[in-house]
Amino acid sequence: MSMRTEPFVVNVGPQHPSTHGVFRLRLTLDGEKIVDAEMVMGYLHRSMEKLAEGRTYTQNIPFTDRLDYLSAMSNNLAYCMAVEKLMGIEVPERGQFLRVIMAEFQRIANHAMAIGSFAMECGVWFTPLMWMFRDREKILDLFEMTCGARLTTNYVRIGGVSFDIPPEFMPAARALVKELPERIAEYEALLLENEIILARSRDVGVLPPDLAIAASTSGPMLRGSGVMWDVRKADPYAVYDRLDFDIPVGTRGDCYDRFLVRMEELRQSVRILEQALEMLPGGPASVEMPLALRPPVGEAYARIEAPKGELGFYLVSDGSPHPQRFHIRSPSYINLTPLRDMLLGLTVPDAVITLGSIDIVLGEVDR
Amino acid sequence: MSRVLDGLEVGERISQRVPEAVVEATPQSVVVQAEKLVAVATYLRDDGELDLCFLIGVTAVDHFDHFEVVYHLQSLSHNHVMTLKTRALDYKSPEVPSLVSVWRGAELQEREVYDLMGIRFAGHPDLRRVFLWEGFPGHPLRKDWLEMPGGFNPGLGRFPRED
Description:
The complex is a heterodimer of chains A (367) and B (163). Chain A has helices at 48-53, 61-65, 72-87, 93-122, 127-147, 169-192, 195-201, 209-214, 220-224, 231-234, 255-279, 331-335, 339-343, 348-358, 362-366; strands spanning 8-12, 15-16, 21-22, 24-30, 33-40, 156-157, 160-161, 298-306, 309-317, 323-329. Chain A is α+β, with helices and mostly antiparallel strands and 367 residues long. Chain B starts with a strand and ends in a 41-residue tail after the last strand. Classes of the chains: A alpha+beta (367), B alpha/beta (163).
């Protein structure tokens, strides 16, 4: 007996916890299988690139906090590097080390959030998320100690950082770095071979390596597909060329591999932090900058390996105090390019996990 | 460090393969004819020595009388980068060919450029607005989108206590 069926449209979001913000997916289903997926975004579009054209280079730093609001330090760093490249400014060594320390703490905080919410979506209810928040909290305490803010840090400045670290920072950071490996071992024991996570995410949302490269994905998404690519190694900025760390890669390119890559990056970030805290030199943390910045006519593209992928800023200067063009190459947005290919043939609960494993933040997708 | 390819040298190589494609070559970037863009991009991606298989980003710049579309390219195997540019000279209705057939990564980014800068990408499979809604008046990243204090450029154009 044959039955006539019709495709069925399911709307996910924009107000839905599993979309990590205000992102909307329009899924067309044939029975339980997804046969088409359409992304709808722009609910958080604040026209940052246009706003930035009306403000001075220094005034634009706080905007970058609001891009990927879970990793403000990395955003500050990428933007300031672009302005420094435009103007040819050299940052003192201590400033470079402080930037690396903050960026790596930020990576741990971001991945803690990503792994915790991924586990939630898989159905490992609440415990991992709360454990991850416990550690993230301590990192945010360090940020608060240094610059007074926990999320929108506005810490990295053109030519250095806004404040040198206070005396109580080093003992607290050393204690945390000493404690983190134990914590990560706990997470690994809880999550790595967790039956629920394996059953829900193994071979789900597979991204083949050739598509990952063609679709310009970056960060854990590219590495989860087995492509050994990390801007910190390939195009080292700050002092990453003097630090010793490994790049984890996946083998199958499924959601579980992306989760594994993030887990291992936690350990590698701790390794970087151990070395960077040990090597932190004395001296000034920033160079004196004039209040009125007028970069010469020209353009610059600077990029970093942000927790979510390659974050780049493309600035065009016409010699005035405002950028003529301020473009953000945001990893969250570009990592969504192959989403439809990954979703086809899956079911709706798998689509939630696949989206979660990309780790998007809508502040950065919509800008 | 990623080596920045010398634009003059790459320009030479492009001219040998795709004649009359290069408009301008500087050490930092290569500007090519919009009509030859797809051929040039395919050559850059497939050539063994260049192997620019990774499109870092697509963006556009408003130069008041024309638009410049900027492509940042990366080779994963040789670890070098280059900047490819093309110009849309018609300011009223700018159009350049789409590169989605060469690099899938251009798909969302070209939609973004179309949405905010209003450059049409001929041959794009799904050229719709992405952040703003259909029917939004104009394209906000253009310099002439709104009358701003101080003319074309929003802002003061100078610092308060300067002169």
